[in-house]
Amino acid sequence: MGDVLLDVQAETLPQSLSPMKSNPLRTITRPVRTGADRLLDAASGLIEGKRIGLLTNHTGRLSNGNSTIEAIARAGICRLTALFGPEHGIAGNTPDGIAIAGGVETRLGAPVFSLYGDVQKPTPDMLKEVDVLVCDIQDVGARFYTYISTIALAMEAAAESGIPVVILDRPNPIRGLSFEGPVCQPSLKSLVGWMPIPITTGLTLGELCKVCNDEGWLDGGRKANLHVVLMERWRRSMWYDETGLAWIPPSPNMPTLATAAIYPGMCLVEGTSLSEGRGTSDPFLIAGAPWADPECVLGQLSRFDVRGVKVTPERFTPRDIPGTARQPKFEGRECRGIRIEIVNRDALKPVHVGISVLAAFKRAHPEDMLFDSMRFDLLAGNLQVREDLELGAPPDEICAAWESGLADFSRIRSGYLMYE
Fold it and tell me: Is 88 exposed, middle or buried (0-12, 13-18, 19+ CB in 10 A)?
C-alpha cells in the first residue's frame, strides 16, 4: 500500500524533557497555538467549500494531539482529496534517504503522493483534484532538513497551477533569534539546499515561505497565492520546550530538542569519514570512527573557542535500527570519538561547534579524516568550507568568511519577521 497514515494517539506523544541544562522546563499555563490550531476557527474561510490537498506528516497535529488530517477531514466544511508526504513519509517512520511509494489513506480514500524519491514536486495530475494546498509540518530550523525544500517545491507547483497555498505556521524549535552558516550558493542548489539561505535562519516555516515567495526564489520568479496562518503566543526567544507543545520527533534521527539544537552543525559530519552517531540513541550528539583517538581530538578542540557545550570522550558502536538507521556508517564496529553535551543553549552556536569538531578531527587525524566532497559541499552549500578545513584553517577564520553573506541575508530577513 505504501505511504499510509498511522493513527498515533495523543497520549503516546509526551513532552520531551531535553537534556539541555539552561532554562529548565517550566509549567506552561497558556501554550502556543499553532497555525493548525487556528485554521478551523480563525482561518476557515481559506478552506471552506474547497477540495484540499494537504502536505503533512506525523508532526501535523493540533495541540490537543489530534492530527491535522483528522481535523480537516472531520470539519465538515471542505473535502480532503489528496495527501502529500515529505522525506520519511506521512507516518514519519522511514529512515533518511529512502525513496517512498505512494498509496491510499484507507479511512479517507484519498490518494497519498510521496514527494521524496523520483518525484519531488507535485505534478499537475497530482493537483487536478485540489483547490487549495495546505502545508502543516514541523521543521527543525536547519537549511538541509529537507522539509523546507519540499514545501518550496510544492509552492512552486501550486503557483504553476494557480492553486492557493496555506502554510500552518509552527515554532522554530531552536528559537527565532539568530542565523548562522554560509548562504547556499546557487551552483549547489539541491534538496538539502534549495534556497539561498544560511544553515540556520531564525525564521519560522511561515516566515521562510514568505521570504521564498516574495523574493522570487520560486522557479522563473513565479509567486504563489500564499497565506500564512500565524501562531498565537509564540515569541522569538522561545525554545520548543517553552511553548507548551509536545515534542514529536520530526524524523527518526531527531529524537530530542537537544538533537535539533546541535544538528545544524553536526549534520556536516555526514559528509566526512566520521560516524555522526546514526545507529545509536544519540545521533549528532556523538561523532567518531574506529581509528580516532579521543584525547588527541579533545586536545585540538581545546584550542578553539567553543561555547555552550561540554565535550567529552565517547565510545559507541553503530547498529542497524529498523525504521531509524539502515546500515549506518561503521555498523557493528566500535567507534572512538567525542560526545557533546549542551550546557548553555542560549550561548550555543551550533554551526561553529560543528566546524570546530571537524577541524579538531582533521588536525588530530589528517590522513584518516576525509571528506566526501560532493556530499559535504551540498550540505555546507559552499565550496570554501571544505577547502579551508582541508587546509587546516582555524574555525573562527572559516566562520568569518560567511559574514558578508549573513549581512545580506539579515537585510532580507528583517522585512519578514511576523513575531516579536
Answer: buried
